[in-house]
Predict the 3D structure of the following.
Amino acid sequence: MKTVASLLIAATALSPLAAQRPQQRTDLPAPAKVEASVAKLRDAALKDEVAYDIVEGLTTEVGQRLAGTEAEARARAWSVVKLKALGFKNVRIETYDMPVWVRGTETAEVISPFRQKLQLTALGNSGATPAGGLTAEIAYFPTFADLQAAPAGSLKGKIAFVSNAMVATQDGSSYGQFGAARFTGPNVAAQKGAAAIVVRSIGSDHGRGPHAGLTNFADGVTPIPAAALATADADNLSRMVARGKPVRLKLVLSPRQTGVHQSGNVVAEVPGSDPKAGIVLVGGHLDSWDLGTGAIDDASGVAITAAAAKRLLDGPRPRRTIRVVWFGSEEVGGFGGRAYLAAHRDERHVLAAESDFGADRVWRLETNLPDAARPIADRLAIALAPLGIVRGTGTSHGGADIEPVLGTGVAGVDLDQSGQRYFDYHHTPEDTLDRVDPAQLAQNVAAWTAMLAIVANAPEDIGPVSPK
C-alpha cells in the first residue's frame, strides 16, 4: 500500500498545475518529510482531548452566551485564561459596540376551539405584544411561499402561522430553503398587516423545544411579535386548523431592545516564521443563543479550531502565522466578523476557514484557491482521505464570521460536517454538552490539524481570488 507521502508526491507530479508553481523556497523541508509529519499529526489528533475540554469548560463554567450581555463578557474573560494556559501567543480581546436585544416572558395558548398551551420562543429582534398579551385568529400558511402570495392588507389584525417543515440533509442546505420563513417571514407578515407571526421552528426534530434564531425587519417596517413554535406544537396547531374551525391564539411576548452594549472578539496566535507569507485565519463564534448552553453552536467550533492550532503550536514553528479568533455576536447579525475586518483590513490574510456546524464528523473538503496554489488542494484531499473525507466538486463559501474577510478576495477552505442531526438541536434548549460525540469531535480536530499543517507550511504563494 502506498503511503500518504508517496501519494502526495505522485499527485503533485501529475498535476497539470504543477508548472504554474512559483519558485519554492530552498529552506523548507523536503515534501516527503513534510507530508509524513502531516500524517503523524493527523493520526495523533484522533486521540485529542483538548477540544472536548474546551467545550466542557465553556458550557459548564459559563453556559449560555447571548451576544452583548454580561454572560458573553464572562465568556471572553474565560477564553483569554484558557487560550493563555494552552500556550497561545498575543492573546487579547478586541471590543466593539453593538445593539442588544433580550427576550422576556414567552407564552402561547390556543383559546379556541381546543384550549391548550403551546411551547414557543421569541425570535431575535421580535417586537413585543401588549403587556396583557395579544389574542387573535390565526391565518394559516402551509409554506413561506403561501405567505408571500397573500394579498396586501389581508392579514390585518391576525396572527400569521407558517408551518413549513424542514427536513435534515447531510450538507445542511435545507436550512437555507426552509429558514426563509424565519429569516424574512416576520417582515413579510408585518408588511401585509399581521398583528403577529408564529412559525414552525426551523429544525429537523419532532420535540417540544423551540428553536431560537434571528429575524430582521426592513427599514421603515415596525417589528411585530414574532416567535418560533416547537415543531411538535406547530404540527398540533396545523391539525387544529385542519379541523376547519377558526383557531384563536393568545401570545404574550415581552422582548426588548436594551440599547448599545459591548461585545468583542478573542484573538490568539501561533506565530509563523515568515511574516511575508501571510496569515491563516481560523475560528468559530463564542456567543450562543440563550436557551441551551451553546455546546454544538458553537463551543465545538472554537474548540476544534483551537485544538488543531495548538498541535502546530506545540511543534516546529509553521511558516505562516495561524490566527485563531473566537468571534463575538455571530448569532445576532455577524457583528464580530465585520469588526474583525475593520480592525485588520490592512494585514495580509491568505486563507480563512471556520467551524460552525456542530461537532459531527467532517465528510467533505471544499476549497477556493488561486491557480498557483491549486496543488495545495490536491495535498489536502489526499491527507484527509484516511479520515473518510471526500473532495467536493464546488468551492468553499465560508460562514458568517469569515465572510467579510473572504469578501476581500482571501482564499478559503471548508471542512464540511454532517448535518444529519445538527438541526435537531440547533438553537434549542437541547444544545448541551451531551450532544457532543467525543470521537466525532476528535475526527474534526484531526481534519483541521492536517489542513493547518499543510496550508500553514505550503511553499506556494497563496494569492488573492475573486471576492466571494
Summary: Residues 1-25 have pLDDT under 50 and may be disordered.
